[in-house]
Design goal:
Elements (H helix, E strand, L loop, with lengths): L1 H66 L4 H23 L14 H6 L26
Helix pairs in contact: 1-2
């Protein structure tokens, strides 16, 4: 009897060790994967910051070019309107279209092609009744 308890204790100890090894293995794998993801995220962040500064430089160049032929306030105003239009266009492109709404300047044909039409009657496939026969007799 004592030997059986000892074997059960060894089995439990072995199972605990195997579970510990499995957990450590999974943790090491996740650490390796997240290390790569962190590096990728840092590169994307650096890319975004560089793009932001490049966009600011382009906006400054446009403003300075307009300043050659217009007063400074007008050049700044035109540059701001151009940037606002670009921001609005990008935001509109990023938002999903609402069902039934058309995109700015669109005809709505592309939107209606992606959403199938709603049938006027429920489908009857797999039922033993024909359409229109679901009325109660005598209640017409």
């Amino acid at each position: 009897m004592q030997r059986l308890e000892h074997m059960q204790h060894l089995d439990k100890h072995l199972a605990d060790q195997l579970a510990h090894v499995a957990r450590e293995s999974v943790r090491a794998e996740l650490r390796e994967q997240t290390r790569g993801q962190r590096r990728k995220a840092a590169l994307y962040a650096g890319s975004g910051a560089a793009a932001l500064y490049a966009g600011a430089a382009v906006a400054l160049a446009v403003g300075l070019a307009l300043d050659l032929v217009l007063p400074g306030w007008a050049a700044a105003l035109i540059t701001a309107v151009i940037l606002a239009a670009v921001a609005f266009a990008l935001r509109t492109a990023a938002r999903p279209a609402a069902p039934g709404a058309t995109a700015a300047g669109g005809t709505g044909a592309a939107d209606s092609a992606s959403v199938p039409p709603v049938p006027s009657t429920p489908p009857t496939v797999g039922t033993d009744r024909a359409p229109g026969t679901d009325r109660i007799p005598g209640k017409g």
